[in-house]
Amino acid sequence: MANKEEQNNILNLFEIIKKELNVEPTKEGEEKQELSNIEKLELEFANLIDQNSKLEEARLIAVADTQNTVKRFQNEAVLVRKYGGERLATELIPAIDMFRSVLKSTPDNPEIKNYLMGFEMIINQIDQALNNAGVSMITTNLGDDLNPEIHNAIEQVESNDFTTGKIVAVISNGYKLHDRVIKHAAVKVAK
């Protein structure tokens, strides 16, 4: 009987431990169900990791795209500041050139000498303002080679003084805005 009593005590102890641990005996199907749930969670976790990496990649692309857009706008702003006065300069230059040619062709008359000096001072001030804005006159000398990037050959003429392709006359000055030609110098070239 002692064995029977010991067995009952062990079974009672087992029941007490089961109740404390809240453990129920499992059937084979339930174990498979639990494994199935674990597998589902693992798959869901893998999907979440994949989605996270895709979202991170999309975020990095968006950040790079935004940085490129900001750089492009900054570069465009620099160009606008640098070349923004081009239209005004191209409209002023023909009037200034005409003013210069009129002053050169005016005879030396003492009655208008003071006016001419005043006009020259005005031209110098306009030249200084254009220069401050980055506009400069292209220096073209007689005998220079024709450079199509800065010169516009309007005529070829016979010349005993210059060889073929050399500039024999400057008809109108050329101008640059910083490094950009805004008006080509009109020249005559030796045949």
UniProtKB/TrEMBL annotation:
The keyword Coiled coil applies. It is found in: Cytoplasm. Its main location: cytoplasm. The keyword Metal-binding does not apply. GO terms for biological process: protein folding. Pfam families: GrpE. One of its GO terms (cellular component) is cytoplasm. Residues 31-58 form a coiled coil. Transmembrane segments: none annotated. Signal peptide: none annotated. PROSITE patterns: GRPE. Keywords: Chaperone, Coiled coil, Cytoplasm, Stress response. Homodimer. Belongs to the GrpE family. Participates actively in the response to hyperosmotic and heat shock by preventing the aggregation of stress-denatured proteins, in association with DnaK and GrpE. It is the nucleotide exchange factor for DnaK and may function as a thermosensor. Unfolded proteins bind initially to DnaJ; upon interaction with the DnaJ-bound protein, DnaK hydrolyzes its bound ATP, resulting in the formation of a stable complex. GrpE releases ADP from DnaK; ATP binding to DnaK triggers the release of the substrate protein, thus completing the reaction cycle. This is Protein GrpE. It comes from Spiroplasma culicicola AES-1. The lineage of its organism: Bacteria, Bacillati, Mycoplasmatota, Mollicutes, Entomoplasmatales.
